[in-house]
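Quick start: what a row looks like.
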Amino acid sequence: MDVTLQKTLMRYMLESKNDDSFIKKVNKLYTTAGAEVLLTVFKLLAGIDIPSEKCSMHWEKTQIHRQKLSELLDRNVDITTALCDYLQSATRFLSHPRLIEASQYETVIHETINDKLTGLFNRPYFDESFNQQVALAKRYHEDFTILFLDIDNFKEVNDTYGHLAGDAALTEIAAVILKEKRDSDIAARFGGEEFVLLMTHTDNVSAFIFAERLRKQIELLAITYRDQVIKLTVSGGIASFPFNSEDPKQLLQMADSAVYLAKGAGKNTISLFKEEKRRYLRIKIHQPVLAKELDFNNSTTFTGISKDICIGGILFENNAPLPLGALIKVRVPVNGGAPVMLIGTVVRVEDFENGRYDIGMTTSFKEMDKIANNEIAGILRLGNVAY
């Protein structure tokens, strides 16, 4: 069942002055949207599934039945009562009817399709809507775009301020997304600190303009938690139908890959999907580097020349090979200032005829964090002894 259509009909029920107004709206929607409208009406009002080819007949007979009941009882009979009576007396569809308040039913719907923390749609609802949008776009030859947003350095918020602060950040960023998006766009919490927007009738250029505006609004956001101001940024990835792909699964993967490009470009940026084997933006850099294997007290320090660098690692030329899989430390001077220390694993060794080697290293932030923590712990231990 189309949940969006269900919510529309629920709104008709709550906003209509009387049942005649509600029925008129349903019939008008039926002429434009087809049998799915009546399927949803039966499911909404009676909790049953009617074969689509019989929906129109039963809906027409329900309206006639309501008119007869109203004349017989000399009062206006509501459509829900007439429908339940008709289905129970004239068909076998409804054996044990039960009552439920419309507002309570709407609450159940909301809790089923919305993320409890942020108020955005949840992942199951997005998946259903996404598949429907793909089908509609293929049928009517329309564009739509997927935008993934991932909060930068979100783990630091949880580690520094606590998980409740992280929840507050998620809620406020979600509020910005809801404010900036169009009514036709579907915004959902995809999981953890990642959000996704499905932008209907939108090409990748228009989506990029919107995503940049959204990114800037989030960057300006000052999240206050227990007198602490938290500033956050997001990285985003964009992929469009049919420009990038007509395959639903591949399209999501492309948008997700574009997020990694944005992260690799320094974060707080939006990237359009492009065919790129590397996840991270690489910058050419020619600087002398010092490389040394870790975990060996007497290991040799090698002098090399860097070739390119990215958030994911570094490629440098060296006068000796290093073992594949070895954990190494690389020291890189930056703009004449203090050197940057990188720690990671050797994943590539290429031999040249002149006795030089290309060494590729992937950065291990986990290992860098562990070493930094060990060094700080050592300082604290010395401090305790001195005290």
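That is the whole record. Residues 131 and 249 are 10 Å apart (CA to CA). The mean pLDDT is 84.
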